[in-house]
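Input.
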Amino acid sequence: MTARAADRARYDRATAHLDAPVAIVDLEAFDANADDLLRRAGGKPIRVASKSVRCRALLERVLAKDGFAGVMSFTLAESLWLARSGFEDVLLAYPSADRARYAELTADPKLASAVTVMIDDVAQLDLVDAARDGGREVVRVCLELDTSLKLFGGRVRVGARRSPLHSPAEVADLARAVARRPGFEVVGVMAYEGHVAGVGDAVAGRPLRSRAVRLMQAAARRELAERRAAVVRAVRAVAPGLEFVNGGGTGSVQHTAAEDAVTEIAAGSGLYVPRLFDNYTSFRGRPAALFAQPVVRRPGVGVVTVLGGGYPASGAAGKDRLPVPYLPEGLRYDPQEGPGEVQTPLLGTPADDLLIGDKVWFRHAKAGELCERFDTLHLVEGDTVTATVPTYRGEGHTFL
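Output.
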Protein backbone atom coordinates (compact mmCIF):
# COMPACT_ATOMS: atom_id res chain seq x y z
CA MET A 1 0.00 0.00 0.00
CA THR A 2 1.37 3.42 -0.97
CA ALA A 3 1.58 6.23 1.57
CA ARG A 4 -1.27 8.01 -0.17
CA ALA A 5 -3.42 4.89 -0.16
CA ALA A 6 -2.72 4.51 3.55
CA ASP A 7 -3.79 8.12 4.12
CA ARG A 8 -7.00 7.50 2.19
CA ALA A 9 -7.76 4.49 4.35
CA ARG A 10 -7.14 6.54 7.51
CA TYR A 11 -9.30 9.43 6.37
CA ASP A 12 -12.12 7.13 5.30
CA ARG A 13 -12.06 5.35 8.67
CA ALA A 14 -11.87 8.62 10.59
CA THR A 15 -14.87 10.10 8.76
CA ALA A 16 -16.93 6.93 8.28
CA HIS A 17 -19.60 8.43 10.56
CA LEU A 18 -19.71 11.70 8.60
CA ASP A 19 -21.55 12.33 5.36
CA ALA A 20 -19.67 14.20 2.64
CA PRO A 21 -19.11 16.98 1.68
CA VAL A 22 -16.68 17.20 4.57
CA ALA A 23 -13.37 18.94 5.25
CA ILE A 24 -10.53 17.73 7.44
CA VAL A 25 -7.15 18.83 8.71
CA ASP A 26 -4.61 16.09 9.39
CA LEU A 27 -2.98 17.34 12.60
CA GLU A 28 0.17 15.29 12.21
CA ALA A 29 0.78 16.84 8.79
CA PHE A 30 -0.23 20.31 10.06
CA ASP A 31 2.25 20.14 12.95
CA ALA A 32 5.01 18.73 10.73
CA ASN A 33 4.49 21.59 8.28
CA ALA A 34 4.66 24.11 11.13
CA ASP A 35 7.93 22.59 12.31
CA ASP A 36 9.34 22.77 8.78
CA LEU A 37 8.46 26.47 8.53
CA LEU A 38 10.27 27.09 11.82
CA ARG A 39 13.32 25.19 10.58
CA ARG A 40 13.45 27.27 7.41
CA ALA A 41 12.96 30.52 9.36
CA GLY A 42 16.25 29.88 11.16
CA GLY A 43 15.20 31.38 14.48
CA LYS A 44 13.28 34.39 13.21
CA PRO A 45 9.67 34.56 14.41
CA ILE A 46 6.88 33.64 12.00
CA ARG A 47 3.74 35.76 11.85
CA VAL A 48 0.82 33.54 10.82
CA ALA A 49 -1.21 34.68 7.81
CA SER A 50 -4.80 34.20 8.92
CA LYS A 51 -6.05 34.38 5.31
CA SER A 52 -4.43 30.98 4.79
CA VAL A 53 -5.94 29.37 7.91
CA ARG A 54 -9.36 31.00 8.60
CA CYS A 55 -9.96 28.94 11.72
CA ARG A 56 -9.41 30.38 15.19
CA ALA A 57 -8.70 27.02 16.80
CA LEU A 58 -5.89 26.27 14.36
CA LEU A 59 -4.48 29.80 14.65
CA GLU A 60 -4.32 29.26 18.40
CA ARG A 61 -2.72 25.84 17.93
CA VAL A 62 0.14 27.10 15.77
CA LEU A 63 0.69 30.24 17.85
CA ALA A 64 1.15 28.03 20.90
CA LYS A 65 4.36 26.73 19.28
CA ASP A 66 7.59 28.51 20.15
CA GLY A 67 8.74 30.49 17.13
CA PHE A 68 5.33 31.65 15.93
CA ALA A 69 4.30 35.14 17.04
CA GLY A 70 1.45 37.35 15.91
CA VAL A 71 -1.18 37.22 13.20
CA MET A 72 -1.26 38.80 9.76
CA SER A 73 -4.94 39.49 9.04
CA PHE A 74 -6.69 40.37 5.79
CA THR A 75 -9.54 42.76 6.67
CA LEU A 76 -10.00 45.37 9.37
CA ALA A 77 -13.22 43.73 10.58
CA GLU A 78 -11.35 40.45 11.02
CA SER A 79 -8.51 42.26 12.80
CA LEU A 80 -10.86 43.75 15.40
CA TRP A 81 -12.66 40.43 15.87
CA LEU A 82 -9.36 38.64 16.47
CA ALA A 83 -8.19 41.33 18.88
CA ARG A 84 -11.44 41.06 20.82
CA SER A 85 -10.96 37.27 20.86
CA GLY A 86 -7.63 37.57 22.66
CA PHE A 87 -5.08 37.83 19.85
CA GLU A 88 -2.74 40.57 21.06
CA ASP A 89 -0.63 41.28 17.96
CA VAL A 90 -2.56 41.62 14.70
CA LEU A 91 -1.01 43.15 11.58
CA LEU A 92 -3.53 44.03 8.88
CA ALA A 93 -1.82 43.11 5.61
CA TYR A 94 -3.92 45.29 3.30
CA PRO A 95 -5.14 48.90 3.44
CA SER A 96 -8.77 49.30 4.48
CA ALA A 97 -11.55 51.73 3.65
CA ASP A 98 -13.83 50.46 6.45
CA ARG A 99 -14.81 53.72 8.16
CA ALA A 100 -17.05 52.11 10.77
CA ARG A 101 -14.27 49.80 11.93
CA TYR A 102 -11.75 52.65 11.99
CA ALA A 103 -14.12 54.50 14.32
CA GLU A 104 -14.11 51.44 16.60
CA LEU A 105 -10.33 51.11 16.44
CA THR A 106 -9.62 54.73 17.32
CA ALA A 107 -12.07 54.70 20.24
CA ASP A 108 -10.84 51.55 22.00
CA PRO A 109 -7.43 51.45 23.74
CA LYS A 110 -7.30 47.64 23.69
CA LEU A 111 -7.96 47.46 19.95
CA ALA A 112 -5.59 50.31 19.16
CA SER A 113 -2.74 48.61 21.03
CA ALA A 114 -3.35 45.20 19.43
CA VAL A 115 -3.95 46.10 15.78
CA THR A 116 -1.50 47.61 13.28
CA VAL A 117 -2.94 48.91 10.01
CA MET A 118 -1.29 48.98 6.59
CA ILE A 119 -0.82 52.14 4.54
CA ASP A 120 1.01 53.21 1.40
CA ASP A 121 -0.66 56.59 0.76
CA VAL A 122 -1.36 59.75 2.77
CA ALA A 123 -4.98 59.54 1.57
CA GLN A 124 -5.41 56.48 3.77
CA LEU A 125 -4.46 58.57 6.81
CA ASP A 126 -7.09 61.13 5.75
CA LEU A 127 -9.70 58.38 5.65
CA VAL A 128 -8.82 57.21 9.16
CA ASP A 129 -8.99 60.76 10.54
CA ALA A 130 -12.34 61.35 8.85
CA ALA A 131 -13.66 58.15 10.43
CA ARG A 132 -12.47 58.79 14.00
CA ASP A 133 -15.82 60.12 15.25
CA GLY A 134 -14.15 61.48 18.36
CA GLY A 135 -11.77 58.57 18.86
CA ARG A 136 -8.36 59.78 20.00
CA GLU A 137 -6.33 56.57 20.21
CA VAL A 138 -3.00 56.51 18.40
CA VAL A 139 -3.17 54.26 15.34
CA ARG A 140 -0.26 51.90 14.80
CA VAL A 141 0.90 52.06 11.19
CA CYS A 142 2.91 49.73 8.96
CA LEU A 143 4.30 50.99 5.64
CA GLU A 144 4.18 48.62 2.68
CA LEU A 145 7.03 48.50 0.18
CA ASP A 146 6.47 47.48 -3.43
CA THR A 147 8.69 44.44 -3.98
CA SER A 148 8.31 44.14 -7.75
CA LEU A 149 11.38 43.63 -9.88
CA LYS A 150 11.70 46.33 -12.52
CA LEU A 151 13.87 45.65 -15.56
CA PHE A 152 14.95 47.62 -18.62
CA GLY A 153 14.36 50.98 -17.00
CA GLY A 154 10.98 49.97 -15.63
CA ARG A 155 9.57 48.85 -18.97
CA VAL A 156 9.30 45.28 -17.64
CA ARG A 157 7.76 44.69 -14.23
CA VAL A 158 7.58 41.36 -12.38
CA GLY A 159 5.46 41.12 -9.24
CA ALA A 160 2.04 41.89 -7.82
CA ARG A 161 0.63 45.40 -8.17
CA ARG A 162 0.42 46.36 -4.52
CA SER A 163 2.06 49.41 -2.95
CA PRO A 164 3.10 52.45 -5.04
CA LEU A 165 6.15 52.88 -2.78
CA HIS A 166 9.17 51.42 -4.53
CA SER A 167 12.24 53.43 -3.52
CA PRO A 168 13.74 54.09 -0.08
CA ALA A 169 13.05 57.80 -0.56
CA GLU A 170 9.36 57.21 -1.25
CA VAL A 171 8.90 55.07 1.85
CA ALA A 172 10.85 57.53 4.00
CA ASP A 173 8.72 60.41 2.70
CA LEU A 174 5.56 58.63 3.82
CA ALA A 175 7.16 57.82 7.18
CA ARG A 176 7.83 61.55 7.64
CA ALA A 177 4.21 62.34 6.73
CA VAL A 178 3.02 59.91 9.40
CA ALA A 179 5.46 61.31 11.96
CA ARG A 180 4.09 64.83 11.40
CA ARG A 181 0.52 63.65 11.81
CA PRO A 182 -0.97 63.55 15.32
CA GLY A 183 -2.69 60.28 16.16
CA PHE A 184 -0.43 57.95 14.14
CA GLU A 185 2.82 56.08 14.78
CA VAL A 186 5.01 54.15 12.35
CA VAL A 187 5.81 50.78 13.96
CA GLY A 188 6.57 48.51 11.02
CA VAL A 189 7.55 47.96 7.40
CA MET A 190 6.17 45.13 5.28
CA ALA A 191 7.35 43.82 1.92
CA TYR A 192 5.68 40.73 0.44
CA GLU A 193 7.65 39.27 -2.45
CA GLY A 194 4.79 37.28 -3.99
CA HIS A 195 6.68 36.66 -7.23
CA VAL A 196 9.23 34.71 -5.16
CA ALA A 197 7.12 33.30 -2.32
CA GLY A 198 4.01 32.51 -4.32
CA VAL A 199 5.24 31.24 -7.69
CA GLY A 200 6.40 27.64 -8.14
CA ASP A 201 9.79 27.15 -9.74
CA ALA A 202 9.47 23.49 -10.74
CA VAL A 203 6.32 23.13 -12.85
CA ALA A 204 5.86 19.58 -14.12
CA GLY A 205 6.33 19.33 -17.87
CA ARG A 206 7.56 22.95 -18.15
CA PRO A 207 11.36 22.75 -17.77
CA LEU A 208 12.16 25.94 -19.69
CA ARG A 209 9.55 27.98 -17.85
CA SER A 210 10.72 26.55 -14.53
CA ARG A 211 14.32 27.55 -15.26
CA ALA A 212 13.18 31.04 -16.27
CA VAL A 213 11.25 31.36 -13.00
CA ARG A 214 14.30 30.29 -10.98
CA LEU A 215 16.51 32.83 -12.75
CA MET A 216 13.91 35.57 -12.22
CA GLN A 217 13.52 34.71 -8.55
CA ALA A 218 17.26 34.69 -7.93
CA ALA A 219 17.57 38.14 -9.50
CA ALA A 220 14.53 39.39 -7.59
CA ARG A 221 15.90 38.17 -4.26
CA ARG A 222 19.23 39.93 -4.80
CA GLU A 223 17.63 43.19 -5.86
CA LEU A 224 15.04 43.21 -3.08
CA ALA A 225 17.50 42.34 -0.31
CA GLU A 226 19.59 45.38 -1.17
CA ARG A 227 16.60 47.70 -1.61
CA ARG A 228 14.80 46.45 1.50
CA ALA A 229 17.87 47.09 3.65
CA ALA A 230 18.09 50.64 2.27
CA VAL A 231 14.39 51.20 2.96
CA VAL A 232 14.73 50.04 6.56
CA ARG A 233 17.70 52.35 7.12
CA ALA A 234 15.75 55.28 5.67
CA VAL A 235 12.66 54.58 7.78
CA ARG A 236 14.64 54.06 10.99
CA ALA A 237 16.16 57.49 10.48
CA VAL A 238 12.60 58.88 10.72
CA ALA A 239 11.12 56.33 13.15
CA PRO A 240 13.94 54.98 15.34
CA GLY A 241 11.41 53.00 17.40
CA LEU A 242 10.49 50.79 14.44
CA GLU A 243 9.31 47.50 15.96
CA PHE A 244 9.33 45.05 13.06
CA VAL A 245 10.21 44.47 9.41
CA ASN A 246 8.00 41.78 7.91
CA GLY A 247 8.75 39.89 4.73
CA GLY A 248 8.46 36.64 2.92
CA GLY A 249 5.85 33.95 2.49
CA THR A 250 5.70 30.17 2.55
CA GLY A 251 7.70 29.77 -0.64
CA SER A 252 10.55 32.08 0.36
CA VAL A 253 10.90 31.62 4.13
CA GLN A 254 14.57 30.62 4.24
CA HIS A 255 15.66 33.23 1.69
CA THR A 256 13.86 36.14 3.37
CA ALA A 257 14.97 35.05 6.85
CA ALA A 258 18.59 35.31 5.69
CA GLU A 259 18.25 39.10 5.27
CA ASP A 260 19.56 41.04 8.28
CA ALA A 261 17.01 43.80 7.72
CA VAL A 262 14.04 41.43 8.16
CA THR A 263 12.94 40.79 11.73
CA GLU A 264 9.99 38.45 11.12
CA ILE A 265 8.57 36.20 8.41
CA ALA A 266 4.97 35.88 7.24
CA ALA A 267 3.64 32.43 6.39
CA GLY A 268 0.36 30.56 6.51
CA SER A 269 -0.34 28.48 3.41
CA GLY A 270 2.54 26.18 4.31
CA LEU A 271 0.50 24.86 7.23
CA TYR A 272 -2.18 23.37 4.97
CA VAL A 273 0.05 22.86 1.86
CA PRO A 274 -2.50 23.27 -0.95
CA ARG A 275 -1.76 22.06 -4.47
CA LEU A 276 -0.04 25.30 -5.59
CA PHE A 277 2.90 24.34 -3.38
CA ASP A 278 3.62 21.14 -5.30
CA ASN A 279 5.84 23.05 -7.74
CA TYR A 280 8.63 24.26 -5.46
CA THR A 281 12.24 23.15 -5.21
CA SER A 282 12.82 24.99 -1.91
CA PHE A 283 10.66 22.76 0.31
CA ARG A 284 8.31 19.79 0.44
CA GLY A 285 5.29 19.93 2.71
CA ARG A 286 2.60 17.40 3.57
CA PRO A 287 -0.97 18.03 2.41
CA ALA A 288 -2.85 18.69 5.64
CA ALA A 289 -6.19 20.18 4.57
CA LEU A 290 -8.47 18.14 2.33
CA PHE A 291 -12.13 17.97 1.48
CA ALA A 292 -14.25 15.02 0.36
CA GLN A 293 -17.19 14.89 -2.01
CA PRO A 294 -19.57 11.89 -2.16
CA VAL A 295 -20.00 9.64 -5.17
CA VAL A 296 -23.61 10.07 -6.29
CA ARG A 297 -23.60 8.53 -9.80
CA ARG A 298 -21.82 5.87 -11.83
CA PRO A 299 -22.54 6.95 -15.43
CA GLY A 300 -20.45 4.22 -17.04
CA VAL A 301 -17.21 2.27 -17.06
CA GLY A 302 -14.33 4.34 -15.71
CA VAL A 303 -16.58 7.23 -14.63
CA VAL A 304 -18.11 8.39 -11.38
CA THR A 305 -19.87 11.62 -10.53
CA VAL A 306 -19.44 13.37 -7.19
CA LEU A 307 -21.65 16.03 -5.70
CA GLY A 308 -20.31 19.57 -6.13
CA GLY A 309 -16.59 20.23 -5.99
CA GLY A 310 -16.32 23.35 -8.17
CA TYR A 311 -14.30 25.43 -5.72
CA PRO A 312 -11.92 27.56 -7.84
CA ALA A 313 -9.23 29.61 -6.14
CA SER A 314 -8.65 33.34 -6.60
CA GLY A 315 -6.20 34.67 -9.15
CA ALA A 316 -5.98 34.58 -12.92
CA ALA A 317 -8.33 31.87 -14.18
CA GLY A 318 -6.64 28.66 -15.25
CA LYS A 319 -6.31 24.97 -14.50
CA ASP A 320 -3.90 25.69 -11.67
CA ARG A 321 -6.76 27.43 -9.81
CA LEU A 322 -8.86 24.26 -9.64
CA PRO A 323 -8.92 21.69 -6.84
CA VAL A 324 -7.35 18.36 -7.75
CA PRO A 325 -8.81 14.90 -7.15
CA TYR A 326 -6.27 13.42 -4.73
CA LEU A 327 -7.55 10.15 -3.25
CA PRO A 328 -7.95 7.56 -4.61
CA GLU A 329 -5.01 8.18 -6.89
CA GLY A 330 -5.56 8.21 -10.63
CA LEU A 331 -8.81 10.16 -10.99
CA ARG A 332 -9.01 13.15 -13.31
CA TYR A 333 -11.57 15.65 -14.53
CA ASP A 334 -13.58 15.25 -17.71
CA PRO A 335 -11.98 17.97 -19.89
CA GLN A 336 -15.42 18.81 -21.32
CA GLU A 337 -16.89 19.57 -17.90
CA GLY A 338 -14.25 20.13 -15.22
CA PRO A 339 -15.33 20.60 -11.61
CA GLY A 340 -18.92 21.81 -11.37
CA GLU A 341 -20.93 23.71 -8.81
CA VAL A 342 -23.39 20.86 -8.25
CA GLN A 343 -21.75 17.84 -9.84
CA THR A 344 -18.32 16.78 -11.04
CA PRO A 345 -17.65 13.75 -13.26
CA LEU A 346 -14.33 12.03 -12.66
CA LEU A 347 -12.56 9.68 -15.05
CA GLY A 348 -10.02 6.91 -14.48
CA THR A 349 -9.78 3.23 -13.64
CA PRO A 350 -10.15 3.84 -9.86
CA ALA A 351 -13.72 4.95 -10.61
CA ASP A 352 -14.76 1.34 -11.14
CA ASP A 353 -13.91 0.52 -7.52
CA LEU A 354 -15.98 3.36 -6.08
CA LEU A 355 -19.53 2.82 -4.86
CA ILE A 356 -22.39 5.24 -4.38
CA GLY A 357 -21.72 7.09 -1.13
CA ASP A 358 -17.95 6.59 -1.16
CA LYS A 359 -15.76 9.63 -0.61
CA VAL A 360 -13.36 11.16 -3.13
CA TRP A 361 -10.76 13.38 -1.46
CA PHE A 362 -9.60 16.65 -3.05
CA ARG A 363 -6.94 19.26 -2.40
CA HIS A 364 -7.81 22.91 -2.90
CA ALA A 365 -5.55 25.06 -5.07
CA LYS A 366 -5.07 27.54 -2.22
CA ALA A 367 -5.14 27.23 1.54
CA GLY A 368 -7.67 29.23 3.55
CA GLU A 369 -10.13 29.69 0.70
CA LEU A 370 -11.31 26.14 1.36
CA CYS A 371 -12.80 27.40 4.64
CA GLU A 372 -15.21 29.66 2.78
CA ARG A 373 -16.98 26.47 1.65
CA PHE A 374 -17.21 24.65 4.99
CA ASP A 375 -18.57 25.60 8.40
CA THR A 376 -16.39 23.11 10.26
CA LEU A 377 -13.03 21.36 10.02
CA HIS A 378 -12.73 17.86 11.45
CA LEU A 379 -9.31 17.41 13.03
CA VAL A 380 -7.86 13.97 12.34
CA GLU A 381 -5.21 12.22 14.41
CA GLY A 382 -4.30 8.78 13.11
CA ASP A 383 -7.60 7.31 11.97
CA THR A 384 -9.80 9.23 14.41
CA VAL A 385 -11.53 12.60 14.39
CA THR A 386 -10.43 14.03 17.73
CA ALA A 387 -12.14 17.43 17.46
CA THR A 388 -14.46 19.41 15.24
CA VAL A 389 -13.83 23.15 15.11
CA PRO A 390 -15.58 26.01 13.33
CA THR A 391 -14.07 27.91 10.45
CA TYR A 392 -14.55 31.68 10.21
CA ARG A 393 -17.69 30.89 8.19
CA GLY A 394 -18.86 28.52 10.90
CA GLU A 395 -18.57 31.35 13.42
CA GLY A 396 -20.73 33.52 11.19
CA HIS A 397 -17.96 35.54 9.57
CA THR A 398 -17.29 35.92 5.86
CA PHE A 399 -14.96 38.89 5.86
CA LEU A 400 -14.64 39.09 2.07
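The CA atoms of residues 74 and 133 lie 24 Å apart.
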